[in-house]
Amino acid sequence: MYSLYFTAALAILPTIILAAPHNISCPATPSPLPKEASFDVVSTLPDPFLYLDGKTRVKTKEEWFACRQPEIMHFLEEYQYGYYPDHSLETVTATRSGKTVNVVVAVGSTKATIAATVNLPTGASASSPVPVVISIGGMDNAAYLAKGIAVVTFDYSAVASDSNSKTGSFWTVYKGRDVGTLLAWAWGFHRVLDGLIIAAPEIDSKRVGVTGCSRLGKAALAAGLFDQRITVTMPMSSGVQGLGPYRYHALSGQDETLENSKSGAPWWSDSTLGTFVNNSERLPYDAHTIAAAIAPRALIIDQGRSDPYTNSKGTAIVVYPAVKLVYDFVGLNGTTLGAGQPKSQIGMALRDGGHCDNSGYSNVLPFVQEVFFGTATTRNYDDLTPWTAMTTAYPWSTSIPS
Ligand SMILES: *[C@@H]1O[C@H](CO)[C@@H](O)[C@H](O)[C@H]1NC(C)=O
Ligand SMILES: *[C@@H]1O[C@H](CO)[C@@H](O)[C@H](O)[C@H]1NC(C)=O
Ligand SMILES: *[C@@H]1O[C@H](CO)[C@@H](O)[C@H](O)[C@H]1NC(C)=O
């Protein structure tokens, strides 16, 4: 009897128009989500305002937040990252010993630990807490500490190995899930933040940055995407599955593509992304859609102009200006960040040099200071020199909802 009841309930689900806050009714997202073959080939960046039903377009920013942003999150889990674990089923505890915070995540009777190292700037205290950047894979700690920003690191490979072996804390509690390593690392950032809130009162958990470079930049992007507590997302030299476009992949550099990223490190994403191999132009999104789902929270994008490994030009002239249109459309959504507001919540930080140069961290620092402290900077994070925006890549720019 129960199973009959259940089947009937499931059968009517796809026709329900979901009620959303402020009585905005969202177009029904197809359920189950469409497979790769049912999407049209779209050679330019897909319209971020067009729902997955292929016919309805976002009309207001309220609707963006109530309907479209959740729809993007849902299909990104399906098509790329894998489904984020249900945090309400996790119990997180943490203890502190000197610079080390040991985070314990329990799911049922299974427990996993993550050790984080806390580097505090001079003057940080429980009565005067400081903002933090959580970093994996190493960064220019000294530059941030000198500006009053804590740097917290953890060993990403202990959270999830960068391989198909499915070892590490994430897999200890979520064995067998169809989840990519980028999401597992993102989950690591979030559980470290949970641990800091419990055991590091010198840190202000309302001002939090996340960063990493290359594959770890892809992970930092995922960390910013899947947790609204992240104030500023700082993906460095991130490439495909980060802020390198799937389309327009051949503009500069080594031409990292969906195909070569899936064959080189298939474990970064879930298995569904693999169904788009050789058909990336059927993806109903691109890197700009991933970034747009972070708006209005701050996003600063690092790329080296001479990076031989990622498509810096594609990120700068295709992805960034397309995302900025969405950021400009949604505005600040009532958000106030830290002590002040940056001029824009999104910036493109181009610099000389190549892949994962440490100089990238000092290049984005003024933007991060603006977000955390409201410290004005004269650095122009909307400068694409020596390139210019490729407007033909986002033809929908002429019909932004108003
Ligand atoms: C929202 O819709 C419900 C049901 O149609 C209605 O009773 C209510 O007054 C509406 N609220 C607003 C704020 O329009
Ligand atoms: C993609 O195309 C390449 C080159 O034509 C081919 O070798 C490969 O098998 C294809 N992969 C899939 C999954 O279709
Ligand atoms: C935007 O603002 C609305 C209304 O205050 C809120 O419900 C929603 O969560 C906000 N969205 C984001 C992404 O901040």
TrEMBL record:
Signal peptide (residue range): 1-19
Positions of the 4-O-methyl-glucuronoyl methylesterase-like domain: 103-331
One MF annotation (Gene Ontology) recorded for this entry: carboxylic ester hydrolase activity
Catalysed reaction equations from the record: a 4-O-methyl-alpha-D-glucuronosyl ester derivative + H2O = 4-O-methyl-alpha-D-glucuronate derivative + an alcohol + H(+)
Keywords: Hydrolase, Lignin degradation, Serine esterase, Signal
EC number: 3.1.1.117
Enzyme class name: hydrolase
UniProt keyword annotation of Metal-binding present: no
A Pfam entry, by short name: GCE_fung
Domain of life according to the entry: Eukaryota
Gene Ontology terms describing biological process: lignin catabolic process
Homology family: Belongs to the carbohydrate esterase 15 (CE15) family.
Protein name: (4-O-methyl)-D-glucuronate--lignin esterase
Source organism of the structure: Mollisia scopiformis
